[in-house]
Write a structure and sequence with these properties.
By secondary structure, the protein is an alpha/beta fold. It has two domains: 1-73 and 170-192 and 200-251, Rossmann fold (3-Layer(aba) Sandwich), CATH 3.40.50.300; 90-167, no CATH class. Helix content is 34%, strand content 24%. The protein has ten helices and eleven strands. The strands form two sheets. The chain has a six-stranded mixed sheet with strand order 7-8-9-4-10-11. A hairpin with a 2-residue loop joins strand 5 and strand 6. The longest helix is centred in the middle third of the chain and has 14 residues, at 152-165. The relative contact order is 0.18.
């Protein structure tokens, strides 16, 4: 049914001076699922994310969110619609505490740019909700710790908390476990599963163990085109997918 699809692309294409990074991508993400976008390096995954949130403008094609065409919309407008993304590089304010980072995201949701200049008492009205979000991602003991002092995995958890502060209907997570220790990967994977209980998640992820454990559906990109689409069991056995991963079996 049409209302089951929260995000859709039709013929999405991006060309850079003769080089086609994304070619005719038709992607459908079902509401309430975790959908993984995977592929070898250079497959066009992050370019797709940048197109979906209009950090890049498509050369051609359409993007629909909740049945509404958002092609050409500004990134801030797309975020206000409930489609919010994270980035490969953790985007936190290093000199602010965990609580202050989340509080800034809550202030942004209010849409009042002058909140920064308001009294400390007014700003602290956000503290209760900020504390709840930190607890939701397992960071309640770090609320007074400067973000720059947090271990890498904890910084990524803080970024997810700031993303949740915007109350997204759909989250786009770009390499959420990249560069993490095994312990951090397990922690963030569990967190993604938790936050996905009442929202949709589309994630770019290289860790195939995380993909196989979390994903309801997987789309494989290679050289900017969709190579396969389906559940992990079927995709991982697709000969074209195995070949795209340099002949190594997916496991």
């Amino acid at each position: 049914m049409a209302d089951e699809i929260i995000l859709e692309t039709r013929g999405l294409t991006k060309e850079f001076k003769g080089f086609v990074a994304v070619r005719n991508v038709n992607l459908s993400v079902k509401r309430g699922t975790i959908h993984a976008l995977i592929g070898p390096n250079g497959a066009g995954k992050t370019t797709c994310f940048n197109l979906l949130t209009h950090f890049l403008a498509p050369s051609s094609g359409k993007i629909l969110y909740n049945g509404r065409e958002i092609t050409g919309s500004r990134p801030a407008a797309i975020a206000r619609m409930g489609l919010v993304r994270s980035f490969q590089i953790s985007a936190v304010f290093p000199h602010l505490t965990g609580l202050e980072n989340v509080r800034i995201a809550l202030q942004r949701k209010r849409g009042r740019s002058m909140d920064f200049w308001r009294s400390e008492q007014v700003l602290r009205e956000h503290d209760l909700r900020a504390g709840e979000l930190l607890e939701a991602v397992g960071l309640e003991q770090f609320e007074d710790t400067p973000a720059g002092e947090l271990p890498y995995g904890r910084k990524r958890a803080l970024e997810i908390a700031t993303t949740l502060a915007l109350d997204p209907e759909m989250m786009l997570l770009d390499e959420p476990t990249a560069g993490m220790t095994h312990e951090d990967v397990e922690r963030i994977a569990a967190l993604i599963g938790k936050v996905a209980l009442d929202r949709t998640v589309l994630m770019v992820e290289h860790n195939l163990s995380v993909v196989s454990t979390l994903s309801d559906r997987i789309t494989v990109l290679a050289r900017g085109e969709i190579l396969a689409d389906g559940d992990y069991a079927s995709v991982s056995k697709d000969p074209a997918v195995v070949e795209a991963y340099l002949g190594g079996a997916l496991a």
